[in-house]
Prior knowledge:
Elements: E1 3-7, H1 11-23, E2 27-31, H2 34-44, E3 48-52, H3 60-68, E4 78-82, H4 87-96, E5 100-103, H5 108-125, H6 132-143, H7 145-154, E6 156-160, E7 165-167, E8 175-181, E9 184-189, E10 195-201, E11 206-207, H8 209-214, E12 221-224, E13 228-234, H9 235-244, H10 246-272, H11 275-291, H12 302-309, H13 313-326, E14 329-332, E15 335-338, H14 341-345
Amino acid sequence: MKKVLVIEDMPDVRENIQELLEISGYEVCGAADGAEGVDKALDERPDLILCDVMMPRLDGFAVLNILSKRPETADIPFVFLTAKTEKEDFRKGMDLGADDYLTKPFTVEDLLNVVETRLKKSERLKKFNKSEEGLSAFINEARGYEELKKLSSDRRKKSYKKRDLIFEEGDIPRYLYLINKGQVKIFKTNDIGKEYIINIRSEGEFFGYTALLKDEPYSFSAAALEGVELSLVPKDDFLKLVHANRDVSTRLIKMLADNVAEKEAQLLSLAYNSVRKRVAQAILLLQDRYQKEGKEDIQILREDLAHIVGTAKESVIRMLTEFKDDGFIEINDGIIRILDRRKLENLPT
Length: 349
């Protein structure tokens, strides 16, 4: 059952809308003003929000502005309820990312049509996932079926061998990359040539979109950790997707937020954890990445592992030997297999 949040300061209007939606088979929760509406949206995670424009404490524009900046609520369809029909109010709402308007007074048919239409569109967009099929669904919603067919025929794939450079820090971005097979390391190199791996991207994940959005050279390099196949989406096509509609851009916000959280955790680990703890975290991260591809064993150069941990290769080798002696892992022909994940996770910092 789909859940709808109604944010409306007029009790009789709010109750009437709630009753109509409940009769039509929706689960409904209500909020008496904008501030309460923001709290309920964050707590209840509704499938759609109906929000009055003129309200005490926070008006509808402020509610939308707050919720559109939160990754957990940014992609919830948002429909304004307003008695005001001036063009500047409509423009302001659409600029903030509103999905639709209902002008009071509205009919039952108007209400149900808007709710049903916006929920159906949201469901179609949820088909987007980190895969080749998901990318096609993503493009289809943003550009239409005919454009999808043309773009699909133009999109090319490219293969890279282990250690091949995909792009280098300072290069001008030309593509959005989707990994069809293999793993890619994202890394930076300092002034004396020392490499530090800031991320590893696996099958079904995108990379390279930050530089495209900022329209500036790459601030990092990317190379194949193993044999890799990539789908290359041209820059112009990607930007058209982003700007096509709010639903597309909010999904990108989620991806960016996930990356920021991951990098913050990595930086905190480097700042506060011992080398032993960091090596353990690195091989746990790698196991998670490999398991996405249905693999249990970790095959990585010790030099690359050292670049993830941010220490010397010799220190990594010493830690791996200790983990092997402790029975946490086994190593055969350079391939690592975790035997006791719990103990690695619970190492002291």
